[in-house]
Amino acid sequence: MINWASFFKYSHTDLTQNKIYTLSTTTQQYITELKTKCDIYVIYSQNDSLYKYIKSTVNQLMRFSPNISVEFIDTDKHILRAQELKQHFAIKGADSLVVSSQNKSHILTKKDIAEIEYIKSIRGIEQNITAYKGEQALIKAVMAVTKNTTPLSIASKPLSYKPLALSTNELSKIRITVLIFMPVAVLFIGLVICFLRKKRLKI
Q1: With contact defined as beta carbons under 8 Å apart, do 47 and 75 qualify?
Q2: Residue 80 reports pLDDT greater than 80
Q3: For the domain that residue 73 is a member of, what is the CATH number?
């Protein structure tokens, strides 16, 4: 059972705790059952502090699903390829993640995948990443382009049912009905059996 609402709302990696980032079991289960081909383009500079986290996430996505393919485009080295993709997907920002499938695409900016504090220093303005949200941002994008919000084998909410509740009066009525009709039914069956026996004797 997957509670997607709580996953998207609360799931993120607090980088200040220096945790090693790994995919959640929720994402692993979803990606494993993905049936549609999906391409991810990482259009980022390798010098960007976010790059290592993004690379780790998309590589793990590929590991859990053969339908996920990833292309890394270093904006400092692969300038022409980066420009080509930015023009094709109408990307306005410098660094972006693109998730594409079935002629649909979803663009993720830095704000989508991380909480960033910008700090002034002697070297200029530096970015301090306080929380990483790349996993849930990527899964949302995959869902959007594949129209695969929740696989059939995964329920977004636990299925519930209500047991049959009968009042005392209702139970009494049922008992009375059974007591009345049971002898009639037995008598009817007995008459049918007697009729069949007589018919056989005549034959």
Answers
A1: no
A2: yes
A3: 3.40.30.10
